[in-house]
Amino acid sequence: MESTSTQLPSFLILVIGTTGMLALATGIVTFIYLYQRKLIKRKLAYQEIENLLRHSELKSAYALLEGQDMERQRIAEEIHDNLGSILVTLSMYAHTLHKTDVPEEKAQLADKIGEIARQAHEEARRISHKLDSGALRHFGLESAIKDLINAVNNSGAITVEANIDIDRELPTEAGLNVYRIIQELINNTLKHAKASRINIDISPISNEYISFIYEDNGTGFSLEDGQKKGMGLRNLAARAEKLNAHLTFGEEAKSGFSVALEIPLK
Amino acid sequence: MVKKLDNILRLCSIFSPLVPLLIVVLRRKKLARYQAVIVIFVTVSFLTDLFSTYIMRGGNYYLLHGYGLLESAILIYFYYLVLKESKKVTAIVGAAFLAFYVVNSLTWEYRVFNTYGSTMECLLMIGFAMALFFQFYKEEEDIFIDQSPLFWMNIGILVYFSGAFFSFILSREILSGPMTWMLHNLCNVLKNLLFAIALWKVHPRNSPAS
């Protein structure tokens, strides 16, 4: 009788214990499986966004080419209409100078030729300055960034809030570096941060700098981890260096990831 | 009725290794080293069960202790192969456990059922299985994890040792009382079926780590 009563709790312990352990094992396996499923969904969404980004980049490149064509056409017109007509006048005076024998007239014509030559020189300088100005070079950067942000927002995977105010002229290479930095940062956020929101702020500070701030509300990371995982931080630093920009990462203790760039305009 | 169910489960447990072994023979896929280790484990388990049931009729404690040692060594080697980051720890813990097992079998549990040895083995294997799951979780390498043979092998080991844990703790009660090894046998069948799934998933492209 006593033996049966001691065996019953043992039997119960055996059944309950085994069931509990099996339930625990099932729980662990289910967790890992569901986690991996979530991972698949995330990777597929990421792939879709990457396609969108590529598409948007292509669109921006077309916009840039179109802009460059328009600008070239405008400059060609200016050379033809202004500099061209001045040179024709100059040639006309030179021809007249060659024909006249009166010394006074010759002196007058020589003065006029000198004046027109100065005008031609001024005009050439003006056009040359226009060619060198950023108006041509930075054409499309703001719209390219906006296209990129729209593409990411349209994917529905993440919300990007942006304040873009580029009223200064940026050389083509600098503009391209800014664009690539944004692309790299968005890629990193989508790949690693598990974030739901990104904030981008690009605005001028006096006449000397453009301030660039990028933040996400993801898991954040330590610089050490970032370097180990090669999360494109090296690329980011290299691009910042090309821009002569000062790069600052947000505090590691704070949630999310943030980076700030001060891009000099000169 | 319980006796009949017990017998059925015992037979299923003894012959369940045939399912994964048949899959290996029929599919003729080239196995990675860690997969071959599992096939060796299944074969050793099958032969030991056959030997103790039909030749030695009930077996003896030398065979039981010897099998336990071999089983542990094979599975420790398996985890040594597949755990990437903590190979040194795996080797040290595994060697320490094997030393304990031998000393235990020769002293405290000499010629009795190896309750301590088996229970410790369960804990060790559950620990290794969890470490491997943590590796899956951390690495995020296999996107379609249910296609990975290693995933199914690890589930097999985790299910078997988790389910058998209480049977081994209460092994002396089971041996002296009316309780049976039913739950242990059930877990063994599950383990072999999960190994069968794992070996079915073997693909020529599967690298040793996948």
Proportion of strand residues of chain A: 5-15%
The geometry of chain A reads as rod-shaped
Radius of gyration of chain A: 33 Å
User: How many β strands of chain B by DSSP?
Assistant: 0
Average pLDDT confidence of chain B is 88
**What is the count of β-strands of chain A?**
5
- State the distance separating the first and last CA atoms of chain B: 44 Å
- Termini of chain A, distance in Å? 97 Å
Number of helices of chain A: 7
Structural class of chain A: alpha+beta
Topology pattern of chain B, helix = H, strand = E: HHHHHHHHH
Q: Which structural class matches the secondary elements of chain B?
A: mainly alpha
Q: Give the count of helical stretches of chain B.
A: 9
Order of helices and strands of chain A: HHHHEHEEHHEE
| Overall body shape of chain B | globular
Largest sheet of chain B: none
Query: Runs of chain A with pLDDT <50, length 5+?
Result: 133-138
The greatest interface between two protein chains, and residues involved on each side, is: A-B, 22 and 29 residues
For the residues shown, what is the average pLDDT of chain A? 78
The largest sheet of chain A is: 5 strands, mixed
What helical percentage do the residues of chain A reach? 55-70%
